[in-house]
Amino acid sequence: MVYAPVPDDPSLPPIRINLLSDTQTRPSAGMRAAMAAADVGDEQIGADPTVNSLCERVAALLGKQAAVFMPSGTICNIAATLAHCRPGDEILAHEVAHIVSLEGCTHAALGGVQIKALRGANGQFSPDTLRAALRPPDRHQAKQTLVSVEQTTNLGGGTVWDISTLASVAALAKAAGLATHMDGARLLNASVAAGVAPLEMVAGWDSVWIDFSKGLGAPLGAVLAGSRDFIDEVWRWKQRLGGSLRQAGICAAACHYALDHNIDRLADDHANARLLADGLSQFDGVDVQSPETNLVFFDVGNAGISNEDLTAALRQNGVLVSIMGGRMRACTHLDVGTDLIEATLDITRDILQRSASEINKPRQLSIVR
To answer: Is-contact 144 92, C-beta < 8 A?
Structure first.
């Protein structure tokens, strides 16, 4: 379940602190200037120089032969799945991965592909779990074609797959003849948090993409990378899905700016997430998952108020968060500084104290004569 109050409801106060998602960032003045000055052409026929240079840059960043610019990360997952698999195939992925939980069952609707959901803590499955799920070819069962992971895990709490685990999972998949795909929506968050270069983190993975519209602060765009043959096939699906663009260099320029200015500062978002989590954990009855990156998941079920009621009360005070997978989620990003994190904690404390006082208020007894 994903739940969030309507952001622009005129009956509610203006949003002052937007922790709904890192997709809520607004382009900075410098990014807007870069977009306005972008050299552009027709992206669909390969004539946009800014898009082309961005794809070359991301391919090099991720150690792949080629890359393609996409409007969103979801279409990266869709096109990659359709390029890797055929109808009747099976993908192995974690049970709360984005392609399982948040993409409208596109793999089945468009590709005729099923997903074998693997279990594991914090959105990650172990090499042993994958090994147990792999099976020899059998014409009575779906052909296992692809292993997919999500870096960082979203519903898993923004956790970072360890590079050695990624390598083991990829090696197992390859030994079984399967392709490998990484949903890298927040890959650069993982890279910064782990201190591991993106190229090293994705070694052994056939396809991988990064999203520019999250913590990197661009208004839209993602880049999917892989072998030249794979990207050629992805382009076929991009065309079929209506993802080909025209003067997309305006958007690609924002992505270039993000790579130049907004990677190292992801550490600030991680620090603010820890600050928020530490503060929430001081409140009675609040259960907080310790954040590894910029996602803070917490539950207030033991604090005398429901997650839904606290989410609504925060919105009444100009703070926007969401509920995902049954837990509350706050996502830090470049538009939310330390001062706003501290303000969020103050507001949350006041709401919880008022809720507790209502619960503990003495009941008035009426005497019936």
So the answer is: yes
- What token pair was written down for 207? 């396809």
pLDDT score, position 295: 98
Distance CA 245, CA 71 (A): 8
What CATH architecture applies to the domain 38-261?
3-Layer(aba) Sandwich (3.40)
* 206-264 pLDDT per residue, tens: 999 999 999 999 999 999 999 999 999 999 999 999 999 999 999 999 999 999 999 99
Identify which of 200, 248, 241, 240 has the alpha carbon closest to the alpha carbon of residue 223.
248
Per-residue pLDDT, 366: 37
* Phi, psi of 35, rounded to the nearest 5 degrees: -65, -45
Backbone angles phi, psi at 118, to 5 degrees: -105, 140
DSSP-based three-state secondary structure for 285: coil
Domain with CATH 3.90.1150.10 in the chain: 2-25+265-353
* CB 45, CB 204: distance < 8 Å: no
What is the rounded average pLDDT for all residues in the chain?
Answer: 95
Label residues 240-272 b or e (16+ Cβ within 10 Å = b).
ebebbbebbbbbbbbbbbbbebbbeebebbbeb
Tokens 């698999």 correspond to 85
Distance between CA atoms of residues 220 and 251, nearest Å: 7
Q: Compute the distance between CA of residue 341 and CA of residue 17 in angstroms, rounded to an integer.
A: 8
Peptide bond into 159 cis (omega under 30): no
Residues of the chain with pLDDT > 70, as a percent, come to: 97
Q: Beta strands 207-211 and 179-184: pairing type? A: parallel
Query: What residues does CATH 3.40.640.10 cover in the chain?
Result: 38-261
Phi and psi at residue 141, to the nearest 5°:
-130, 165
Quote the tokens at residue 36: 């306005």
Give the class (CATH, top level) of 2-25+265-353. Answer: alpha beta
